[in-house]
Amino acid sequence: MMYKNNKLVLLTSATVLAVGASAMASATTLEDTVNRGAVQCGVSDGLPGFSSPDDAGEWQGLDVDVCRAVAAAVFGDAEAVRYVPLNAVERFTALQSGEVDVLSRNTTWTTTRDTTLGINFTGTNFYDGQGFLVSSDLGISSAMELDGAAVCVQSGTTTELNLADYFRANDMEFDPIVFDTSEQTVGGFEAGRCDVLTSDTSQLAALRIQLNDPDGAMVLPEIISKEPLGPAVRQGDDQWFNIVKWSLFAMLNAEEFGVTSDNVDEMLGSEDPDIARLLGEDGNYGEGMGLDADWAYHIISQVGNYAESFERNVGMDSPLQIERGINALWTDGGIQYAPPIR
Amino acid sequence: MIHNHKMIEARPAPSNTIGPLAWLRANLFSGPINSLFSLLGLYLLYLLLVPTIQWGLINADWVGTSRDDCSREGACWVFINARFTQFIYGLYPRSELWRVDLTFATFAGLIGWLMIPRLPFKRWVALVTLVGFPVFAYFLLYGGHFGLPVVQTHRWGGLMLTLVLAVVGMVGALPIGILLALGRRSQMPIVKSFCVVFIEFWRGVPLITVLFMASVMLPLFMPTGVSVDRLIRAFIGITLFQSAYMAEVVRGGLQAIPRGQEEAAAALGMGYWKRMGLIVLPQALKMMIPGIVNTFISLFKDTTLVMIIGLFDLLGIVQAALSDSRWLGFALEGYIFAAFMFWIFCFSMSRYSQYLERKLHTGHKR
User: Fold this and answer.
1) Can you tell me where the transmembrane regions are (chain B) (predicted)?
2) Which residue in the set B82, B154, B179 is minimally distant from A83, CB to CB?
């Protein structure tokens, strides 16, 4: 008898807390977000350069900056984010069930995910691809010379499958050596158990730093897979989809027009019509999304443009030292291209 | 004539039977084979200890603020230093840390009061600890009342979260476990079968499955927009899981009490709850101490599994820190720190249980 009471109390308190913890679901995502006072953003539970807590306990990273940009657009305050660390398994459930409203978690945009999971990808904030890291001593300059190599790979189906596909397509032999975690993979590479280590290029940079002699290893030029990483939202709320999509586009456009977090206040008086439209000085382009005219101004002044975010988190100003490569703007030979704001 | 009798001063025992040398002879070098193994053991110890001490102490870097302060020849304790606050408090806002301190200081005070035999009002303090303190801790840690800003549970982490999970799990699992154990021994068929099914179900699934169900499946069953806080999901999962184990430990203790005890109590006219509460359980619980503490220690360590549902307990926050691109490559230091913290807590629990056993020892010891 007493036991039943106990369980009843437990269940009741859980339900009360549950209902108390969440707002009503009938409103749009934007209304819910405004009522809550924070954007619920799903990030990785720790990925160098993309999302990790810094020494002060604040989240930092390229994926985190997407969350901050959305918060800046909605609230004018980039700090109004509730970060939910998610692992690879639960990320889509968390988005579908409404636990997060933006999933910015190093997620590759694929047909299956876009069409069958009830989610929409809003763009690509990092064009990734699988690459190879070799010891400089080997004297190899191309992946085509890797015939017969022992390859260290972190278990994870797509990486392993891409590796097998690439070697078969080029009629080469290889010997896979599979590890569970990135530390073990680096350890195996360092101990000489394999000649080459393969992973996404964004990860290779982080793995390389962990070597005892980072300069003794180099990344080969071949990229053997397409991994466009981008934020995703739930299907069925086009207004929210637009907000997340254009938050990223605003950062790209700002880079294209040379607007940075440092000069954005001077740019407010700019004669350039593109910049005037971006910063909301000419027309109100936030209206269609339910935002203020200066939505993009807040993004740029608080988060910065795409180049600033890139260099700060994964580029030359960070320990990872990843080159812009194809992530450069279309005007600089890359493929990052944002539709115009007009 | 007066004889001056003088006692000969007591002489020390022969030098070959006392002192460190004798100890060495008796224990390490009592024969050729023992001597050989002793020397081999010492050599292995030397091989193991010298690089460890060199890496961990002599070549280690202790002061600094960034990875550039580390030579990488030895351990980089700078990393632990820089992250220490985060490892203890998780992402809890820096300006609100006093709330965590106050909560745990109060808890330590209450537990200390209960542990020291001389202090009075034990009954009232116990009541405050079990009923008043959880409410107090909730208002203080979560906030939202009395002018304290709300700190969302996703900012909780580190050692603080580990302790919160462990304490909630222990405080919840023990009473539920006792009731389940009593229910399983009950004559009433419905109560009995319910308890048996409950215990066997929760013991039959791994905790990691329970947590995965709670984090991946549960949200899909809920109406859209209604979500249970993940910390509460973890609380419920861990408590139900551990209560099943606790129930079996308690049942083992109950079975060790001779039937005559309960029959004698019944002969005195006591009802069921009086028989259990005054006669059987006090004797049984005393014998269960090793089992209960064992379960608590395993629960304490099991809390690390919440990492897989995105909660940053002590181990989780260490792993998250390892992924900061400014601190890449210090995994060993991080894991050693986490292991050391866990060891301190588990070892203290085990020592206290030994003390408690000695104190309550009234003739059942075998």
Assistant:
1) 33-53, 98-117, 124-144, 156-182, 194-221, 276-297, 304-322, 328-349
2) B154
Q: Quick one: tokens of A122?
A: 């809003």
Q: Has residue B119 been placed in a domain?
A: no
Q: Which of residues 228-247 of B touch A (CB under 8 A)?
A: 228-230, 232, 236, 239
Q: How far apart are CA A255 and CA A278, in angstroms?
A: 11
Enter the pTM of the model: 0.83
- Quickly list DSSP for B177-227: HHHHHHHHT-S-HHHHHHHHHHHHHHHHS-HHHHHHIIIIIHHHHSPTT--
B262: in domain: yes
Residues B157 and B39 in one domain: no
The closest CB to that of A99, out of B227, B317, B320, belongs to: B227
Query: Model confidence over A16-73: pLDDT tens digits?
Result: 444 444 434 457 899 989 998 999 999 988 888 999 988 888 899 999 999 999 999 9
Which CATH number belongs to the domain containing residue A49 in this structure? 3.40.190.10
Give tens-digit pLDDT for A260-289. 999 999 999 888 999 999 998 888 899 999
Does B225 reside within a domain?
A: yes
* Separation between Cα atoms, residue B287 and residue B357, nearest integer Å: 8
Identity of residue A41? C
